[in-house]
């Protein structure tokens, strides 16, 4: 078990390093931030000084080297635009994104798994078919369109929910969370639903396929023959078996929801990390873009590691093949 | 009698019950609350409401008294500002000349500033305070635009920042100051200004909350509390207004204007801006990028070609079809009545036949191929405007292609001169002609500071000389006449081809008012109640 975990950690470290090179070099290809940062009527002297101030006068390899050395010291640079520490800036926006992603994840699991299991059990009835058709709609709707339609319906026409922004927050460990303040919940509903809709469809499909497959397995027949109740067969035996792929996918999707809630956060003016990323790209704030992607890479590496470990807990065969191989 | 008194009392009670809170949706977020940190519109428009300056800009960008009650040029190189008495910062300290000196000194000392305000402080050679309410500045050469320039320098409290009492101005920062305030400390709301509002909450990416400064020296603003929220996505901004989540937004997209006008609960105000959209040329390269079939020459160096391009474009059609009427055809860099403009000048009328004739005379009877570079997310409908201009130019015989791209790529390419002809926009921060002429038409030269946004290298020595002379002429009337003449020279040479001025739109709930600002600023203190 320990060897397995150690090997996985080593792989993750390699991925992070390779990504550092890739991310840093590709950000240089986007354009020169000085033209965006400077006031249009800045003169040539001010331009030269700003280039030196931001360290843009140094050759690329030198900038990369400095970046690598700083990264190993845990410093991912200073925002060109805001002048403050990039990691600090990103982590300051983390709670907003985190709570959005977690609410969306719960929505996806709580809505998606039961619907998927029902659709799998009753795949030939109209109930099953309409659930599956509905999931196709969920797949194919563009995120921003769904968000804007919800705003039009619930905020503009019905005026039930606020159209965007983050509501009042409560404080935990010095961080602000809307989840802790009921007055902030209405602001959370629409963005979380927008973020969840695709995941719900995904989970429905996975759960449905898994259920259909599991129902044909010998152990289900055996359980039936043994006279176990239907609820127990579905709720314990089938569910446990179909959960592995769902946990994997949701784990990865949680990562992508945290990392790339960009569209949802922009549509709802939600002050999370995705909003920061898109603003930073628009202003070519290189240190923030690079730091963001590095944090995301590290996060994905972590999530994969955890999922792998979870696997081996859920299914001992994974661990055994890894040790044997 | 009693009933009347009761009714009057009822009325008096009813007034405070009116909404005292204003919620504003902005299209861009300020990068910090430090007023000396970033020389860019979103930061300046926010800071002006909290940190005042010596002079203000009125709706037409002419300098107005603010912390300075009056000013005059003692001689060509000396300016004297008489400061307002009895002004207090929101921390209770008094405003004096020390604060002005301290603020000018701090500007070059801001760490990590992405775009510094030193352009405004650099001309000042010495600064003294003969008495606590007088500031005298000297400059190396005559500097007539000082009243406009000092608008860029926000005044903070020297006392609150812990400055020594015997503060002395020095061009590179004051003597005897141990540590300068940090930008992060401004973000933590540690510093006070003298403005109509003070910051009470700052959640980056989410909101800035301001409260009325009840001891403000000037006109009391209409709102007790103002929340400014960045809603960068324009459809979401309009939705927030329609949903009643905000009371006031800036820059609603043109396609949503009919919907806002048709809504009985909403109102809007339009105002001509100082931003001109123009076509600019690459004069420097012998074979400019994107040009083909020109016989190995740079066709843009020929004035007849430039005039033909100008003649082929129907500006009124662009304004009415592409801009939905929310723009004004331009004849020079700034609209009338801003300083240094030519009162009688008319936008070019399209004349395709004449354009064809000029092209033939220039040696291109069959036209030539060219590619227009344009941003597609910087100015209002920018890429569509370029498309329309390209089609109009095609009628005169040009073989035109459009290369549209996101602004970050566009501006980097423009600086590297990767276009032969391009569309861009310019707003004159000082609200007068010398700013535009210097940047767009002056010969690029680090010594004079001319041509900072003239990467194509247009050069007209006679215009440069006239502009240099104007820039050292202290008399306003004389200077503006010279600037108008320099502008006329530039336009007559078709050095740059102005297309239109953008019109800025603000939309809000019925019952509010807004005085449109030519500098496109959104300021809560200019939002009133009917």
Written description of the protein model:
The complex is a heterodimer of chains A (325) and B (530). With 325 residues, chain A is mainly alpha-helical. Chain A has 14 helices and two strands; from the N terminus they run H-H-H-H-H-H-H-E-E-H-H-H-H-H-H-H. Chain A folds into two domains: 71 residues, no CATH class; 196 residues, Orthogonal Bundle (MetI-like fold). Chain A has a two-stranded antiparallel sheet with strand order 1-2. Chain A starts with a helix and ends with a helix. The mean pLDDT of chain A is 84. Chain B has 530 residues and is α+β, with helices and mostly antiparallel strands. In chain B, strands 1, 8, 9, 10, 11, 12, 13, 14, 15, 16 and 17 form an eleven-stranded mixed sheet that branches. A four-stranded antiparallel sheet of chain B has the order 4-5-7-6, covered by helices on one side. Chain B folds into three domains: 119 residues, D-Maltodextrin-Binding Protein, domain 2, CATH 3.40.190; 133 residues, Dipeptide-binding Protein, Domain 1 (Dipeptide-binding Protein, domain 1); 231 residues, Roll (Dipeptide-binding Protein, domain 3). At the A-B interface, helix 2, helix 3, helix 5, helix 7 and helix 12 of A face helix 6, helix 7 and helix 13 of B.
> What level of helicity do the residues of chain B show?
25-40%
- Kindly report the name of the CATH homologous superfamily of the largest domain in chain B: Dipeptide-binding Protein, Domain 3
SS content category of chain A? mainly alpha
Class per helix and strand makeup of chain B? alpha+beta
Helix content of chain A: over 70%
Give the CA-based shape of chain B.
globular
CATH classification, class level of the largest domain in chain B: Alpha Beta
Write the layout of secondary structure elements.
The complex is a heterodimer of chains A (325) and B (530).
Chain A: H1 2-30, H2 34-37, H3 44-53, H4 60-72, H5 86-121, H6 126-140, H7 143-157, E1 170-172, E2 175-177, H8 185-215, H9 218-226, H10 230-259, H11 262-267, H12 273-282, H13 286-314, H14 316-324
Antiparallel strand pairs in A: 1-2
Chain B: H1 2-17, E1 21-26, H2 41-47, E2 55-57, E3 63-65, E4 68-75, E5 78-83, H3 97-106, H4 118-121, E6 124-128, E7 134-139, H5 146-149, H6 183-187, E8 197-203, E9 207-212, E10 225-230, H7 234-242, E11 248-250, H8 257-261, E12 266-281, H9 303-312, H10 315-322, E13 327-329, H11 352-361, E14 369-375, H12 382-395, E15 399-405, H13 407-415, E16 421-427, H14 433-441, H15 461-471, H16 476-492, E17 497-509, E18 512-514, E19 527-529
Parallel strand pairs in B: 1-10, 1-11, 14-15, 14-16
Antiparallel strand pairs in B: 2-3, 4-5, 5-7, 6-7, 8-9, 9-10, 11-17, 12-16, 12-17, 13-17, 18-19
């Amino acid at each position: 078990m320990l060897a397995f975990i150690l090997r996985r950690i080593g792989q993750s470290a390699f991925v992070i390093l390779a990504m550092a090179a890739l991310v840093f070099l590709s950000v240089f290809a986007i354009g020169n931030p000085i033209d965006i940062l400077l006031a249009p009527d800045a003169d040539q002297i001010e331009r030269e000084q700003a280039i030196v101030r931001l360290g843009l006068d140094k050759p690329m390899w030198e900038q990369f080297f400095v970046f690598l050395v700083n990264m190993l010291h845990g410093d991912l640079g200073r925002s060109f635009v805001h002048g403050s520490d990039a990691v600090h800036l990103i982590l300051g926006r983390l709670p907003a994104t985190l709570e959005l992603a977690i609410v969306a994840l719960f929505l996806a699991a709580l809505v998606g798994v039961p619907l998927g299991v029902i659709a799998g059990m009753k795949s030939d009835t109209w109930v099953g078919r309409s659930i599956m058709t509905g999931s196709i709609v969920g797949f194919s709707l563009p995120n921003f369109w769904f968000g804007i339609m919800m705003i039009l319906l619930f905020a503009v026409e019905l005026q039930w929910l606020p159209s965007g922004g983050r509501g009042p927050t409560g404080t935990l460990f010095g961080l602000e969370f809307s989840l802790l303040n009921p007055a902030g919940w209405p602001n959370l509903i629409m963005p979380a639903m927008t973020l969840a809709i695709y995941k719900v469809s995904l989970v429905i499909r996975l759960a449905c396929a898994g259920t259909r497959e599991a129902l044909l397995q010998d152990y289900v027949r055996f359980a039936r023959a043994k006279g176990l109740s239907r609820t127990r067969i579905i709720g314990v035996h089938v569910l446990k078996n179909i959960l592995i792929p769902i946990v994997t996918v949701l784990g990865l999707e949680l990562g992508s929801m945290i990392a790339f809630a960009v569209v949802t956060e922009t549509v709802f003016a939600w002050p999370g990390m995705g909003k920061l990323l898109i603003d930073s790209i628009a202003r070519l704030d290189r240190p923030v873009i690079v730091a963001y992607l590095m944090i995301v890479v590290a996060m994905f590496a972590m999530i994969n590691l955890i999922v792998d470990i979870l696997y081996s807990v859920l299914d001992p065969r994974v661990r055994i093949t890894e040790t044997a191989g | 009698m009693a009933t009347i008194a009761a009714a009057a009392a009822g009325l008096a009670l009813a007034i405070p019950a009116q909404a005292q809170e204003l919620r504003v949706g902005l299209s861009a977020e300020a990068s910090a609350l430090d007023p000396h940190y970033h020389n860019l519109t979103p930061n300046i428009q926010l800071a002006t409401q909290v940190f005042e300056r010596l002079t203000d800009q009125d709706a037409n960008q002419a300098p107005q008294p603010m912390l300075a009650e009056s000013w005059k040029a003692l001689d060509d190189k000396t300016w004297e500002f008489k400061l307002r008495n009895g002004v207090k910062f929101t921390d209770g300290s008094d405003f004096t000349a020390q604060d002005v000196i301290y603020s000018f000194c701090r500007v070059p000392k801001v760490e990590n500033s992405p775009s510094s305000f030193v352009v405004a402080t650099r001309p000042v050679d010495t600064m003294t305070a003969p008495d606590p309410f007088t500031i005298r500045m000297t400059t190396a050469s005559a500097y007539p635009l000082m009243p406009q320039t000092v608008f860029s320098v926000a005044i903070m409290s020297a006392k609150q920042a812990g400055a020594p009492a015997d503060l002395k101005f020095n061009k590179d920062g004051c003597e005897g100051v141990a540590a300068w305030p940090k930008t992060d400390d401004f973000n933590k709301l540690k510093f006070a200004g003298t403005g109509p509002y003070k910051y009470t909450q700052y959640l980056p990416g989410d909101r800035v909350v301001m409260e009325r400064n009840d001891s403000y020296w000037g006109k009391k603003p209409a709102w007790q509390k103002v929340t400014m929220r960045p809603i960068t996505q324009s459809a979401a901004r309009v939705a927030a207004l329609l949903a009643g989540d905000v009371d006031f937004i800036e820059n609603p997209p043109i396609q949503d204007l009919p919907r806002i006008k048709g809504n009985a609960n909403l109102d809007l105000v339009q105002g001509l801006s100082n931003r001109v959209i123009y076509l600019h040329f690459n004069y420097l390269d012998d074979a400019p990028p994107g040009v083909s079939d020109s016989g190995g020459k740079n066709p843009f160096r020929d004035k007849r070609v430039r005039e033909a391009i100008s003649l082929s474009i129907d500006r009124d059609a662009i304004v009415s079809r592409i801009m939905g009427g929310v723009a004004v055809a331009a004849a020079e860099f700034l609209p009338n009545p801003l300083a240094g403009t030519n009162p009688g000048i008319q936008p070019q009328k399209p004349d395709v036949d004449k354009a064809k004739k000029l092209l033939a005379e220039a040696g291109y009877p069959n036209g030539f191929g060219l590619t227009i570079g344009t941003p597609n997310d910087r100015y209002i409908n920018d890429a569509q405007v370029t498309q329309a201009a390209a089609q109009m130019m095609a009628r005169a015989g040009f073989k035109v292609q459009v290369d549209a791209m996101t602004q970050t790529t566009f501006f980097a390419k423009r600086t590297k001169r990767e276009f032969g002809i391009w569309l861009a926009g310019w707003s004159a921060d000082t609200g007068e002609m010398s700013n535009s002429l210097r940047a767009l038409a002056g010969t690029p030269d680090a010594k004079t500071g001319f041509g900072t946004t003239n990467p194509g290298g247009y050069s007209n020595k006679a215009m440069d000389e006239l502009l240099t002379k104007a820039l050292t002429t202290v008399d306003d009337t004389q200077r503006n006449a010279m600037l108008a003449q320099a502008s006329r020279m530039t336009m007559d040479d078709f050095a740059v081809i102005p297309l239109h001025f953008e019109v800025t739109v603000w939309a809000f709930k019925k019952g509010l008012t807004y005085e449109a600002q030519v500098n496109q600023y959104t300021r809560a203190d200019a939002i009133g109640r009917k």
